[in-house]
Design a protein that fits this description.
The structure holds 2 protein chains of 2 kinds.
Chain A lengths: L2 H32 L9 H7 L5 E2 L2 E2 H20 L5 H27 L4 H19 L5
Antiparallel strand pairs in A: 1-2
Helix pairs in contact in A: 1-3, 1-5, 3-4, 4-5
Chain B lengths: L4 H24 L22 E3 L6 E7 L4 H17 L3 E7 L8 H12 L4 H10 L1 H4 L5 H11 L4 H9 L1 H17 L6 E4 L2 E2 L7 H14 L8
Parallel strand pairs in B: 2-3
Antiparallel strand pairs in B: 1-3, 2-4, 4-5
Helix pairs in contact in B: 3-4, 3-6, 3-7, 3-8
Classes of the chains: A mainly alpha, B alpha+beta.
Chain lengths: ~140, ~230
Protein backbone atom coordinates (compact mmCIF):
# COMPACT_ATOMS: atom_id res chain seq x y z
CA UNK A 1 0.00 0.00 0.00
CA UNK A 2 1.47 3.37 -0.93
CA UNK A 3 1.80 6.24 1.52
CA UNK A 4 -0.88 8.38 -0.12
CA UNK A 5 -3.48 5.62 0.08
CA UNK A 6 -2.56 4.87 3.72
CA UNK A 7 -2.96 8.56 4.54
CA UNK A 8 -6.43 8.69 2.94
CA UNK A 9 -7.51 5.60 4.90
CA UNK A 10 -6.36 7.17 8.18
CA UNK A 11 -8.13 10.46 7.43
CA UNK A 12 -11.31 8.57 6.57
CA UNK A 13 -10.99 6.60 9.79
CA UNK A 14 -10.54 9.87 11.72
CA UNK A 15 -13.68 11.25 10.06
CA UNK A 16 -15.70 8.16 11.05
CA UNK A 17 -14.42 8.25 14.65
CA UNK A 18 -15.20 11.97 14.90
CA UNK A 19 -18.78 11.30 13.72
CA UNK A 20 -19.26 8.99 16.71
CA UNK A 21 -17.87 11.74 18.94
CA UNK A 22 -20.13 14.30 17.30
CA UNK A 23 -23.19 12.17 18.11
CA UNK A 24 -22.04 11.68 21.71
CA UNK A 25 -21.25 15.37 22.28
CA UNK A 26 -24.49 16.51 20.61
CA UNK A 27 -26.47 14.20 22.91
CA UNK A 28 -24.69 15.58 26.00
CA UNK A 29 -25.19 19.16 24.83
CA UNK A 30 -28.92 18.59 24.43
CA UNK A 31 -29.04 16.98 27.88
CA UNK A 32 -27.33 20.02 29.38
CA UNK A 33 -29.64 22.46 27.56
CA UNK A 34 -32.82 20.68 28.60
CA UNK A 35 -31.60 20.50 32.20
CA UNK A 36 -31.91 16.72 32.22
CA UNK A 37 -28.51 16.43 33.90
CA UNK A 38 -29.85 18.40 36.86
CA UNK A 39 -32.49 15.88 37.87
CA UNK A 40 -32.42 12.36 39.24
CA UNK A 41 -33.85 9.78 36.92
CA UNK A 42 -30.71 8.34 35.46
CA UNK A 43 -27.30 7.41 36.73
CA UNK A 44 -26.24 9.22 39.93
CA UNK A 45 -22.62 9.19 38.71
CA UNK A 46 -23.63 10.94 35.50
CA UNK A 47 -25.38 13.60 37.56
CA UNK A 48 -22.28 14.12 39.70
CA UNK A 49 -20.20 14.74 36.59
CA UNK A 50 -22.61 16.46 34.22
CA UNK A 51 -24.34 18.43 36.96
CA UNK A 52 -21.07 19.69 38.44
CA UNK A 53 -19.57 23.13 37.97
CA UNK A 54 -16.83 21.53 35.82
CA UNK A 55 -19.40 20.64 33.17
CA UNK A 56 -19.76 24.28 32.14
CA UNK A 57 -17.32 27.01 31.13
CA UNK A 58 -18.68 30.55 31.36
CA UNK A 59 -22.18 29.08 31.47
CA UNK A 60 -21.67 27.10 28.26
CA UNK A 61 -21.83 23.30 28.52
CA UNK A 62 -18.43 21.69 27.95
CA UNK A 63 -20.23 19.25 25.64
CA UNK A 64 -21.03 22.15 23.28
CA UNK A 65 -17.31 22.79 22.88
CA UNK A 66 -16.93 19.06 22.28
CA UNK A 67 -19.54 19.21 19.52
CA UNK A 68 -17.67 22.02 17.78
CA UNK A 69 -14.33 20.23 18.21
CA UNK A 70 -15.61 16.94 16.79
CA UNK A 71 -17.19 18.78 13.88
CA UNK A 72 -13.87 20.53 13.30
CA UNK A 73 -12.02 17.21 13.33
CA UNK A 74 -14.52 15.72 10.88
CA UNK A 75 -14.21 18.71 8.53
CA UNK A 76 -10.41 18.83 8.64
CA UNK A 77 -10.15 15.06 8.17
CA UNK A 78 -12.45 15.24 5.13
CA UNK A 79 -10.53 18.09 3.56
CA UNK A 80 -7.22 16.37 4.33
CA UNK A 81 -8.48 13.17 2.71
CA UNK A 82 -9.31 15.17 -0.42
CA UNK A 83 -5.79 16.59 -0.54
CA UNK A 84 -6.19 20.01 1.05
CA UNK A 85 -2.68 20.56 2.40
CA UNK A 86 -3.43 22.91 5.29
CA UNK A 87 -6.19 20.74 6.71
CA UNK A 88 -3.70 18.38 8.31
CA UNK A 89 -2.17 21.14 10.47
CA UNK A 90 -5.61 22.20 11.69
CA UNK A 91 -6.52 18.58 12.34
CA UNK A 92 -3.40 18.02 14.44
CA UNK A 93 -3.96 21.24 16.37
CA UNK A 94 -7.61 20.43 17.13
CA UNK A 95 -6.92 16.84 18.15
CA UNK A 96 -3.99 17.99 20.34
CA UNK A 97 -6.23 20.49 22.12
CA UNK A 98 -8.91 17.83 22.59
CA UNK A 99 -6.31 15.43 23.97
CA UNK A 100 -5.22 17.93 26.63
CA UNK A 101 -8.84 18.80 27.49
CA UNK A 102 -9.64 15.09 27.82
CA UNK A 103 -6.75 14.56 30.24
CA UNK A 104 -8.05 17.43 32.37
CA UNK A 105 -11.62 16.10 32.33
CA UNK A 106 -10.48 12.59 33.25
CA UNK A 107 -8.45 14.02 36.13
CA UNK A 108 -11.52 15.94 37.37
CA UNK A 109 -13.70 12.83 37.21
CA UNK A 110 -11.16 10.57 38.92
CA UNK A 111 -9.73 12.82 41.61
CA UNK A 112 -12.15 15.69 42.17
CA UNK A 113 -15.64 14.32 41.58
CA UNK A 114 -14.85 10.63 42.23
CA UNK A 115 -17.44 9.68 39.64
CA UNK A 116 -17.31 8.76 35.97
CA UNK A 117 -19.83 9.53 33.27
CA UNK A 118 -19.98 6.79 30.65
CA UNK A 119 -20.60 9.24 27.80
CA UNK A 120 -17.50 11.19 28.85
CA UNK A 121 -15.44 8.00 29.00
CA UNK A 122 -16.66 7.06 25.52
CA UNK A 123 -15.61 10.48 24.27
CA UNK A 124 -12.22 10.12 25.97
CA UNK A 125 -11.68 6.79 24.19
CA UNK A 126 -12.54 8.43 20.85
CA UNK A 127 -10.13 11.30 21.49
CA UNK A 128 -7.34 8.85 22.30
CA UNK A 129 -8.15 7.02 19.07
CA UNK A 130 -8.05 10.28 17.10
CA UNK A 131 -4.74 11.19 18.74
CA UNK A 132 -3.26 7.86 17.69
CA UNK A 133 -4.47 8.43 14.12
CA UNK A 134 -3.02 11.96 14.09
CA UNK A 135 0.35 10.56 15.17
CA UNK A 136 0.23 7.69 12.65
CA UNK A 137 -0.55 9.83 9.58
CA UNK A 138 2.65 9.94 7.54
CA UNK A 139 4.05 13.31 6.60
CA UNK A 140 3.29 14.47 3.06
CA UNK A 141 6.94 15.39 2.42
CA UNK B 1 -16.73 18.13 -9.07
CA UNK B 2 -14.36 16.23 -6.76
CA UNK B 3 -13.05 19.57 -5.56
CA UNK B 4 -16.42 20.48 -4.09
CA UNK B 5 -17.21 17.05 -2.63
CA UNK B 6 -15.68 17.68 0.84
CA UNK B 7 -17.67 20.92 1.13
CA UNK B 8 -20.83 19.01 0.29
CA UNK B 9 -20.07 16.23 2.81
CA UNK B 10 -19.13 18.65 5.60
CA UNK B 11 -22.21 20.77 4.92
CA UNK B 12 -24.45 17.72 4.97
CA UNK B 13 -23.00 16.54 8.29
CA UNK B 14 -23.49 20.03 9.77
CA UNK B 15 -27.13 20.08 8.69
CA UNK B 16 -27.80 16.53 9.94
CA UNK B 17 -26.17 17.35 13.30
CA UNK B 18 -28.20 20.53 13.74
CA UNK B 19 -31.44 18.85 12.70
CA UNK B 20 -30.93 15.80 14.94
CA UNK B 21 -29.88 18.04 17.84
CA UNK B 22 -33.03 20.12 17.43
CA UNK B 23 -35.25 17.02 17.22
CA UNK B 24 -33.57 15.52 20.30
CA UNK B 25 -34.03 18.79 22.16
CA UNK B 26 -37.73 18.82 21.38
CA UNK B 27 -38.10 15.19 22.41
CA UNK B 28 -36.07 15.53 25.61
CA UNK B 29 -37.60 18.77 26.79
CA UNK B 30 -39.88 17.70 29.58
CA UNK B 31 -43.47 18.81 29.10
CA UNK B 32 -44.31 21.64 31.47
CA UNK B 33 -46.48 20.15 34.18
CA UNK B 34 -49.08 22.02 36.14
CA UNK B 35 -51.12 21.20 39.19
CA UNK B 36 -54.82 21.45 38.30
CA UNK B 37 -56.50 24.37 40.00
CA UNK B 38 -59.27 22.16 41.40
CA UNK B 39 -56.87 19.67 43.00
CA UNK B 40 -57.48 20.00 46.69
CA UNK B 41 -55.93 18.31 49.68
CA UNK B 42 -59.22 16.96 50.94
CA UNK B 43 -59.69 15.06 47.70
CA UNK B 44 -56.75 12.85 48.48
CA UNK B 45 -58.36 10.90 51.28
CA UNK B 46 -57.43 10.07 54.85
CA UNK B 47 -53.76 9.19 54.39
CA UNK B 48 -52.98 12.63 52.99
CA UNK B 49 -50.91 14.75 55.33
CA UNK B 50 -49.13 17.63 53.74
CA UNK B 51 -45.73 18.59 55.02
CA UNK B 52 -45.86 22.35 54.89
CA UNK B 53 -43.56 25.08 56.13
CA UNK B 54 -44.89 28.61 56.00
CA UNK B 55 -48.18 30.44 56.26
CA UNK B 56 -51.31 29.15 54.60
CA UNK B 57 -52.00 32.61 53.11
CA UNK B 58 -48.53 32.95 51.57
CA UNK B 59 -48.55 34.49 48.11
CA UNK B 60 -46.27 31.81 46.71
CA UNK B 61 -46.34 28.06 47.30
CA UNK B 62 -43.39 25.93 46.30
CA UNK B 63 -44.14 22.21 46.07
CA UNK B 64 -41.21 19.83 45.83
CA UNK B 65 -41.50 16.20 44.79
CA UNK B 66 -38.29 14.90 46.26
CA UNK B 67 -36.28 11.80 46.97
CA UNK B 68 -33.99 11.85 50.00
CA UNK B 69 -31.33 9.84 48.15
CA UNK B 70 -31.29 12.10 45.09
CA UNK B 71 -28.12 14.28 45.04
CA UNK B 72 -29.74 17.21 43.17
CA UNK B 73 -32.54 17.26 45.78
CA UNK B 74 -29.96 17.42 48.56
CA UNK B 75 -28.16 20.21 46.71
CA UNK B 76 -31.39 22.21 46.62
CA UNK B 77 -32.33 21.62 50.25
CA UNK B 78 -30.23 24.43 51.74
CA UNK B 79 -31.08 26.94 48.99
CA UNK B 80 -34.81 26.29 49.55
CA UNK B 81 -34.36 26.80 53.29
CA UNK B 82 -32.58 30.07 52.49
CA UNK B 83 -35.46 31.13 50.22
CA UNK B 84 -37.88 30.48 53.09
CA UNK B 85 -35.83 32.77 55.31
CA UNK B 86 -35.56 35.45 52.61
CA UNK B 87 -39.21 35.51 51.54
CA UNK B 88 -40.61 34.85 55.06
CA UNK B 89 -44.42 35.06 55.10
CA UNK B 90 -44.65 35.37 51.31
CA UNK B 91 -43.45 31.80 50.70
CA UNK B 92 -44.58 28.44 51.92
CA UNK B 93 -42.92 25.16 51.06
CA UNK B 94 -44.61 21.79 50.62
CA UNK B 95 -42.66 18.54 50.44
CA UNK B 96 -43.98 15.41 48.75
CA UNK B 97 -42.30 12.04 48.44
CA UNK B 98 -41.24 10.57 45.14
CA UNK B 99 -38.65 7.89 46.04
CA UNK B 100 -37.04 6.63 42.83
CA UNK B 101 -36.73 2.90 42.31
CA UNK B 102 -33.06 3.16 41.34
CA UNK B 103 -32.18 4.61 44.75
CA UNK B 104 -31.71 1.68 47.10
CA UNK B 105 -32.59 3.42 50.38
CA UNK B 106 -34.90 6.19 49.16
CA UNK B 107 -38.11 4.48 50.26
CA UNK B 108 -36.76 3.67 53.72
CA UNK B 109 -35.65 7.30 54.07
CA UNK B 110 -39.14 8.48 53.09
CA UNK B 111 -40.62 6.14 55.71
CA UNK B 112 -38.13 7.41 58.30
CA UNK B 113 -39.21 10.99 57.64
CA UNK B 114 -42.86 9.98 57.95
CA UNK B 115 -42.12 8.12 61.18
CA UNK B 116 -40.46 11.28 62.49
CA UNK B 117 -43.45 13.25 61.24
CA UNK B 118 -45.76 11.11 63.36
CA UNK B 119 -43.86 12.51 66.34
CA UNK B 120 -43.99 16.06 64.95
CA UNK B 121 -40.41 16.14 63.61
CA UNK B 122 -40.84 15.66 59.87
CA UNK B 123 -38.92 18.76 58.78
CA UNK B 124 -36.09 18.16 61.20
CA UNK B 125 -35.67 14.64 59.80
CA UNK B 126 -36.08 16.01 56.25
CA UNK B 127 -33.18 18.43 56.75
CA UNK B 128 -31.06 15.82 58.52
CA UNK B 129 -31.57 13.19 55.82
CA UNK B 130 -30.52 15.60 53.10
CA UNK B 131 -27.55 16.86 55.10
CA UNK B 132 -26.31 13.35 55.84
CA UNK B 133 -27.23 11.90 52.45
CA UNK B 134 -23.66 11.04 51.47
CA UNK B 135 -23.29 9.03 54.69
CA UNK B 136 -26.45 6.92 54.82
CA UNK B 137 -26.90 6.44 51.07
CA UNK B 138 -23.77 4.25 51.02
CA UNK B 139 -24.50 2.40 54.26
CA UNK B 140 -25.38 -1.31 53.98
CA UNK B 141 -27.89 -1.08 56.84
CA UNK B 142 -29.54 2.32 56.91
CA UNK B 143 -31.91 1.44 59.74
CA UNK B 144 -29.11 1.76 62.28
CA UNK B 145 -28.31 5.25 61.03
CA UNK B 146 -31.96 6.31 60.83
CA UNK B 147 -32.49 5.14 64.41
CA UNK B 148 -29.45 7.20 65.41
CA UNK B 149 -30.89 10.23 63.63
CA UNK B 150 -34.19 9.71 65.46
CA UNK B 151 -32.24 9.68 68.70
CA UNK B 152 -30.46 12.90 67.72
CA UNK B 153 -33.83 14.55 67.15
CA UNK B 154 -35.06 13.43 70.55
CA UNK B 155 -37.67 11.02 69.21
CA UNK B 156 -39.00 7.99 70.99
CA UNK B 157 -36.87 5.33 69.27
CA UNK B 158 -39.19 2.39 69.90
CA UNK B 159 -42.14 4.28 68.50
CA UNK B 160 -40.01 5.52 65.57
CA UNK B 161 -39.04 1.94 64.66
CA UNK B 162 -42.64 0.80 64.89
CA UNK B 163 -43.90 3.77 62.87
CA UNK B 164 -41.38 3.11 60.11
CA UNK B 165 -43.01 -0.27 59.60
CA UNK B 166 -46.53 1.06 59.98
CA UNK B 167 -49.15 1.01 57.29
CA UNK B 168 -49.84 4.66 58.04
CA UNK B 169 -46.33 5.77 57.04
CA UNK B 170 -46.38 3.55 53.94
CA UNK B 171 -49.79 4.89 52.94
CA UNK B 172 -48.60 8.49 53.24
CA UNK B 173 -45.62 7.86 50.98
CA UNK B 174 -47.83 5.96 48.55
CA UNK B 175 -50.31 8.84 48.56
CA UNK B 176 -47.59 11.27 47.44
CA UNK B 177 -46.41 8.83 44.77
CA UNK B 178 -49.97 8.54 43.53
CA UNK B 179 -50.21 12.30 43.37
CA UNK B 180 -46.89 12.43 41.48
CA UNK B 181 -48.15 9.83 39.02
CA UNK B 182 -51.34 11.77 38.44
CA UNK B 183 -49.35 14.93 37.69
CA UNK B 184 -46.92 13.19 35.35
CA UNK B 185 -43.88 13.61 37.62
CA UNK B 186 -41.04 11.34 36.45
CA UNK B 187 -37.85 12.72 37.97
CA UNK B 188 -36.64 14.41 41.12
CA UNK B 189 -36.54 17.12 42.10
CA UNK B 190 -39.72 18.23 40.37
CA UNK B 191 -40.72 21.61 41.70
CA UNK B 192 -43.90 23.60 41.20
CA UNK B 193 -44.15 27.28 42.03
CA UNK B 194 -47.77 28.36 42.30
CA UNK B 195 -48.82 25.22 40.43
CA UNK B 196 -46.46 25.71 37.48
CA UNK B 197 -43.51 23.41 37.05
CA UNK B 198 -40.07 24.97 37.25
CA UNK B 199 -38.05 23.89 34.22
CA UNK B 200 -35.16 21.53 35.13
CA UNK B 201 -32.77 24.11 33.69
CA UNK B 202 -33.88 26.51 36.48
CA UNK B 203 -33.45 24.05 39.34
CA UNK B 204 -30.76 26.12 41.00
CA UNK B 205 -30.88 28.86 43.65
CA UNK B 206 -31.02 31.71 41.12
CA UNK B 207 -33.59 29.93 38.95
CA UNK B 208 -35.89 29.23 41.89
CA UNK B 209 -35.57 32.78 43.14
CA UNK B 210 -36.50 34.02 39.67
CA UNK B 211 -39.53 31.72 39.55
CA UNK B 212 -40.69 32.94 42.98
CA UNK B 213 -40.18 36.58 41.98
CA UNK B 214 -42.21 36.01 38.83
CA UNK B 215 -44.99 34.39 40.87
CA UNK B 216 -44.90 37.26 43.38
CA UNK B 217 -45.22 39.80 40.58
CA UNK B 218 -48.28 37.94 39.38
CA UNK B 219 -49.47 38.17 43.01
CA UNK B 220 -51.96 35.36 42.73
CA UNK B 221 -52.58 33.91 46.18
CA UNK B 222 -52.75 30.14 46.04
CA UNK B 223 -54.05 28.41 49.11
CA UNK B 224 -55.86 25.24 48.22
CA UNK B 225 -54.21 23.61 45.26
CA UNK B 226 -51.58 21.38 46.81
Amino acid sequence: MNTSRFRIILYTLAAIVSLAGLADATYLTVQALTGETLVCGGSPDCFRVLGSSYARVAGIPVAAFGTLAYFGVFSFAMFAAFGYARARAFLTLTVGTMFLATLWLLYVQAFVLHAFCRYCLFSAALVFGLSAIAVLVPSSR
Amino acid sequence: MKRYLPFFIVGTVALVTLASGALLYRAKRLPALAIPENSTTSAMGGTEMLHVRGRADALVTLVEFGDFQCPPCANLSDPINQLERDYRSRLRVVFRHFPLANHQHAREAALASEAAGLQGRFWEMHDLLYREQSVWSKAPDVRILFNAYAGMLGLNIDRFKKDMESEEAKARVASDEQKAGALGVRTTPTIFVNNHQVSPAYLNPAGLRGSIDTALRARTPVSSTQ
